[in-house]
Amino acid sequence: MTLALSTQKLNTASLANADPQRVAVPAYDRSTVRTGVLHIGPGAFHRAHQADYFDRLLASDPRWGIHGVSIKSAALREAIRPQDNLYTLAILDEQVRYRVIGAMTQVSTVQDDAWRNTFLSPDLHLVTLTVTEKGYCLGSDDTLDFTHPDIAADLLDRTCPSSVIGLLAEGLRLRHAAGLAPITVLTCDNLPSNGRKLREAVLAFSAAIDRELSGWISNVIVFPCSMVDSITPATDDSRRQSVAAATGLEENWPIQREAFSSWVIEDRTGPGFPDLSRVGAIMTNDVEAHEKAKLRLLNGAHSTLAYLGLALGHQTVSGAMQDAALAGMIDTMMHREIASGLRAPQGLDLNAYRQALLKRFRNPAIAHRLSQIAWDGSKKLPIRLLDTITENLDAGRPVDGLATGVAAWMRFVRRSALNGSAITDPLADRLIRIGAACNDRPESDVARFLEVGEVFAPSLASQPAFVTRMEWAYARVMALESGEEQL
Ligand code: CS2
Prior knowledge:
Elements lengths: L7 E2 L2 H4 L19 E6 L3 H5 L1 H9 L6 E6 L4 H6 L6 E6 L4 E5 L2 E6 L4 H6 L6 E4 L19 H8 L7 H14 L6 E4 L6 H16 L1 H10 L5 E4 L7 H11 L1 E2 L4 E4 L3 E5 L15 E3 L2 H25 L5 H5 L2 H15 L11 H13 L7 H4 L3 H19 L4 H20 L8 H10 L4 H9 L7 H4 L2 H18 L6
Parallel strand pairs: 1-10, 2-3, 2-7, 3-6, 4-11, 7-8, 12-13
Antiparallel strand pairs: 4-5, 9-12
Helix pairs in contact: 7-8, 8-9, 11-13, 11-14, 11-16, 11-17, 16-17, 17-18, 17-21, 19-21
The chain binds D-mannonic acid.
């Protein structure tokens, strides 16, 4: 695609000339914005979701600019610094809409001291995080894994933290030592009871370095749970070009997401918490029911679609949903195996929610790659599928679809090992070794995978009913892969 001749580089100066018919620009004076939020992990999801809520809040309250801190990479800082920390959000619906988001006041990495200064600022009221499931460094019992190399390194030296837990403990220590007001720490990752798990991890870490600090954190810092939702496919070159062509503003790292977006926050927040309900966030005392419904229905279906879709030769979620047999199987699984065991939070009709999810998965405007969702299976499967399987087996509910999703993950690992393709997963090396040692016999292959205690709790892996179902499902996925059977 060739770019329109009138394209300019996105920055504060070019923003003034932007055509409002083509792109919406911040509805506030950025020079008056203060930094009230420190966000750890300012990846695509944060910029598509939370930053959009703060951008809309800034239209009436200048206190909520965001300082984004990356722990592992300087790529975002390098990309958006020349753009004065502006970027474009493409909202993918029947018609694509574009907005320039101005909420990021600063992007830095842990290597420089900027995050310390923000922790020490009286303007700071909120620390948020999107660091993915593996970023919490939790063991299979959901408590802090003290043997994790990043945690071990941070216990010795927090000059430049390697882990989000070390960074939070150090930031809170600075704040406590300076006698500043408490803040809220809000996790926005796809983990059940995410706030409680984060709190326990930060307390365990801080108790190991300074008991007085952990006492202070325990008494005054709140860690609400939250549920976040918006489908955010990774940006590719074609999106970069189409954004520039549509808006007239050329830029390094635009973000895209579906039009739907939701943020449900536990209404147990600290002093000075922003009024996010003004921009559509839901404050509730029952966030865990929302989390559970979303993680099991949306993310459980997503992971099943990813591994099974790849086995059947599909590339994207909407492509896989065009396969009527696969879409039908996902619907049945969501209805009979997942929703049947859920308690609906007030205001959520589980049937309508399931229908809406299927429609979102079908959205033809979104090319959400199955390979993106397939990342980090060892961390995602326990939360998305295995917890439901455990409960269903106890309650006598069916598990065939769920077991097929888990078996499709095993086969994904096996095929990757055979093809020599890398997988993205904290257990990648071990999984690929397991995949290479498989011999395509359901009994022995399943047994090898079930030994991975980080994924399969021993109490589940030792249940004969589970093992038999997994062997059946593994054989089923092999037959689907080879075309011997149809869904
Ligand atoms: C997806 C999620 O990549 C994945 O694993 O299931 O990122 C999903 O798109 C979001 O949770 C939707 O809110």
